[in-house]
Amino acid sequence: xxxxxxxxxxxxxxxxxxxxxxxxxxxxxxxxxxxxxxxxxxxxxxxxxxxxxxxxxxxxxxxxxxxxxxxxxxxxxxxxxxxxxxxxxxxxxxxxxxxxxxxxxxxxxxxxxxxxxxxxxxxxxxxxxxxxxxxxxxxxxxxxxxxxxxxxxxxxxxxxxxxxxxxxxxxxx
Length: 173
Description:
The protein is mainly alpha-helical. Helix content is 86%, strand content 0%. It has one domain (3-170).
């Protein structure tokens, strides 16, 4: 392995660990805790959307997918069909597609949902009063959308990790 691939793989793995690990924590523990806390949980979730957390999650997913694409291109020698259809190529392709789908789900569902929650939280803070019934209703819908999207995204990320980690066991890359 040359130095470039070592650096790329290290960044890919570290950013992927953060992305997938955070998603697993959110789905397995944080989401149910937030729901169980009722209105206080919504406040915590809303506050989280106002931090750097959404930006860091987006950055880790972008790094993971972009560097993964570059490494896939290098390993496949420019998307060579024989490599892609080999056992390790198939495993990496399945993992790559799952990772890209998780990224797209985050980009098209989770990110806009997070942004809308942040807007509502800012409106509530600016008003200085309790949330209106329509804000509560919208926040509940948005939190449920986020919960479902996060679950599906996490399943896709786990498939990506399994495909990529298993590829090395199926042959030489």
